[in-house]
User: What shape does this take?
Amino acid sequence: MNQLDKFFNPKTIAVIGASNTPNSVGHSVFKNLVGNGFVLYPINNDNKVTSVIDIPAYQSVIDVPGEIDLAVIATPAFTVPAIVEQCGIKGIGAVIIISAGFKEIGKEGEELERQILTTIKKYNMRIIGPNCLGILVPHLKLNASFSRENVLPGSIAFISQSGALGTAVLDWSIKQCVGFSHFISIGTMLDVTYHDLIDYLEQDPHTKSIIIYMESLRESKKFLKAARAFTQHKPIIILKVGRSEEGAKAAKSHTGSITGNDDIFQAAFKKAGILRVDTLNAFFNLAQGLNTQLRPTGNRLCIVSNAGGPAVISTDTLIKSGGIIAPLSEGTMNRLNAILPRPWSHGNPIDILGDATDKRFRESIEVCIDESQADAILVILTPQDMTDATAIAKELIKIDKKGKMVLAVWMWWDQVQEGKDILNQAQIPTYSTPEDAIDYFMQMHTYSNSLSIFEESPIHLPSDWTIHTDKNIQILAKVVKEKRSVLTEAEAKEFLSNYGIPMAKSGIAHSEQEAGEISSKIGFPVVMKILSPDIIHKTDVGGVILNVCDETEAKKAYLQIMQNVEKLKANIHGVFIEHQVFKKYEILIGCKKDPIFGPAIVFGMWGTSVEIYKDTNIALPPLDMLSTKKLIEGTKIATLLKGYRGMAGVNMEELQNVLYRFSALVMDFPEIAEFDINPFAMDQYWGVVLDAKIILDENQK
Assistant: This one.
């Protein structure tokens, strides 16, 4: 038996803090459980309380004569560690802590959590919470929360770090006739976290999708593994907050946890096949659509409307979102001509005119359902004087959809509410604006697309690729011995070269004479750079001289560079001299170590312009050749790299090889905090690293 079964399918439940005081949390939780077939034990340490809602009370769980599957704690935070200890002694394996006042308030709360963690490890217990609303399992009539709402049973599991948002979702779900398989408020996730719940819900026959409100995340690798397994069969949708610096601070103060870099979260979600939304409105819209469990097979949409304006808005929104207006076959056009008035739009969107009856709507929709080039149908109704929104809704629910997604937009509110209610009860996703409906359609298309990516076979590198991990270990050992965190450019390039990433010819000069000799040996022109772990931005201090064309210039350049940096009092390792390479394309390849997800690989436009144009894409390693291709294609510069308007592109296979090797390198050396190749120069033949920077993680050196 899965240990989480005690939470979601308990037979006996104890509520610690159960009370007869109206409007108290303990009273609300216990009242919600009464009369639903569970054996209940109210626990209240006041010896004057002999019963709660006419059920005999006990002063401690230890006093209860029978076994207890689930305990719900609703007492002040300072009392909780001792209560958890009593639960452990009693042999209770599942505990929900509703109480607040733990790590979100600082060190005092953190100490309480430390005590609880010690206890649950001692007794092999699991905890949901603290600082949560509780849980609901509607098909079992289990409401172990202080929510007053009676939730409809359904196929969506909702997981939330915010109890208040959870309450709002429950209220909305009842009005929209959306049901849940599970409602789980997890609070600050002291123990049970997302990956535990996703793994559990994957095996649950009642759960067909998961929606999550997320503020913070821990155990990211387990989360991604669980999510990727789930999304190969069922969708996960996440509203992740803390995108801005201010939002991240607010989220941290709410949950007491780090929120992480938002761009890296986005890359992680994409890798796991997770759909992300940015607003509560989109969150609710997707939840409503998921209730039907239908997904489009493509992005071609057929629009049927009784008004031209909303049809045009729909078209613009669809095209902007990457969708396609479905072409209509000759057979479809002939059938529509036969049933519609002559002034109809004679194309898609299909404007069936403002006087459209329920019969005209039904017949037009049936024709569109038969159109093989349409992946879904969007039906838009605006309330004209002659429009009967209720009758049209009744006709729509009778139509045989033949497995095709049908979305409805019943515009405006009071005038069409009865029709919307009919559609919602029939599990037809119904929206108030075309934008909301198309957002849902495109999100579901994105999810379907992600499933096809999972099924693609990864392309691997040839087996003759050679790496020299031992040499890189020696480089890092030298850096650490010298108590440095920054590798010199020469060290960084050697580090890359040991993993087969191409470099230009180079050398290090320690004198004016050596500068001339090394430059001549390399071959002109050369570029000369100061070599120092203390000087990261070499150009800013006059530490770089380009286009050095003979031995005399090389000697002068050496003296000039040394003079420019003399006043900095930096640790100078010499002047790095390198053959100056000219390539058509210059690219950024980098890595940043995220505190939650670990290394994240960045690819995009090179140089200082990367900070202005932000044309970059991020992926989490390890990368195979397929994921390197997706990483490249996720940037605007990819259009140029493939060749544009007669201009030659780059050797794309070689670029993918470099990204693959770079991915392997950063995976092998978790000591690296930041790693920049900026730029990597390339043409249609080959590429070369022009500059490289490696900064080590102070905590892992």
